[in-house]
């Protein structure tokens, strides 16, 4: 019970305590860390939860983008 409001994240298959806390995607055989993106972004690849392996069908962005989120 964290008191956080329920977020209707796309793809409700994650069973982790913090759903979609850590995501990865495999692009051309290389695993990249990604995070859920608030807005629609062109996602050419599917991302998976690193915790339970659930498929994340929503938009995401690469962690190592030029925009650094603290
Ligand atoms: Zn998960």
Quick gist of this model?
The chain contains no helices and five strands. With 70 residues, the protein is an all-beta fold. The structure holds zinc ion.
Can you describe what's shown?
It is a single chain. By secondary structure, this protein is an all-beta fold. The chain has no helices and five strands. It has a five-stranded antiparallel sheet with strand order 4-3-1-2-5, with no helix packed on it. A hairpin with a 5-residue loop joins β3 (47-49) and β4. The structure holds zinc ion (ZN). Residues 14-16, 49, 51-52, 54 line the site of zinc ion.
What string gives the helices and strands in order? EEEEE
Mean pLDDT reading: 77
Low-pLDDT residue intervals, each spanning 5 or more residues? none
- Largest sheet data: 5 strands, antiparallel
> Are any ligands bound, and if so which?
zinc ion
Radius of gyration over all CA atoms, rounded? 12 Å
Oligomer classification:
single chain
The share of residues in extended strands comes to 25-35%
Q: Strand sequence of the main sheet, in spatial order?
A: 4-3-1-2-5
- Report the total helices: 0
Coarse morphology: globular
Query: Could you tell me the number of beta strands?
Result: 5
Percent range for helical residues? Answer: under 10%
Structural class: mainly beta
End-to-end span in angstroms?
24 Å
């Amino acid at each position: 019970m964290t008191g956080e409001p329920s977020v209707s994240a796309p793809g409700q298959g994650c069973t982790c305590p913090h759903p979609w806390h850590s995501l990865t995607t495999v692009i051309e055989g290389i695993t990249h860390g990604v995070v859920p993106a608030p807005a629609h972004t062109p996602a050419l690849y599917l991302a998976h939860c690193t915790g339970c392996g659930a498929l994340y069908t929503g938009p995401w962005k690469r962690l190592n983008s030029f925009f650094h989120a603290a």
